[in-house]
Amino acid sequence: MASEQIGYRGPTACAAAGITYRQLDYWARTGLVEPSVRPAHGSGSQRLYSFRDVVVLKIVKRFLDTGVSLQNIRSAVQHLRERGFSDLERMTLMSDGATVYECTSPDEVHALLQGGQGVFGIAVGVVWRDVESALSQLHGERVDTGETLVGPNPADELARRRNRAV
After folding, report:
1. pTM
2. CB 55 within 8 A of CB 38
């Protein structure tokens, strides 16, 4: 099934991105990373995140772990949003702690390193594959029908029963 047809609920997105539900909720409420499949509509409703949303969540987590300020992360996420999140898996995001740079070629990475400042990078393709691997072991949901998609975990009897009941 194509990744655009699968959504992930909050707890699944948290597990794949390595964040807490409190972080997820705060980031959604403040507009940092909002679910693109289905936003929450009041108490009791479930947000539904796309695969790309989960990749962005993990990128935000990595930036926070390396000390980049939330303000600079917001700028980077806004840039990615304006760009349309296209070609994320081919991108390297670099930061000197104050600014986040998008590099799409080895020459751009090299030019940034020539400045002599200390920088770190996030190879988005690696994050992409990490999220893919994590989500393959977790439950997704069909966007069109709401059917729970069970990963290859044979011990998950509850999800199998839920699908039979529908």
Report:
1. 0.81
2. no
- What is the CB neighbour count within 10 angstroms for residue 18? 15
Task: Dump the DSSP string for 73-98.
Answer: HHHHHHHHHHHTTTTGGG-EEEE-SS
What are the CA-CA distances from residue 132 to residues 89, 127, 146 (Å)?
A: 11, 8, 20
- Residues near 120 by beta carbon (within 8 Å), at least 6 away in sequence: 66, 94, 95
Residues 6+ apart with CB under 8 A from 141: 6, 7, 8, 9, 48, 147, 148, 149
Residue range 124-140: average pLDDT?
91
pLDDT at 154 over 50: no
| pLDDT tens-digit series, residues 95-118 | 877 788 888 888 888 888 887 776
**Burial of residue 105, with CB atoms counted within 10 A of its CB: 0-12 exposed, 13-18 middle, 19 or more buried:** exposed
pLDDT in tens, 37-73: 988 777 767 899 999 999 999 999 999 998 888 888 9
CA pair distance 95, 118, nearest whole angstrom:
9
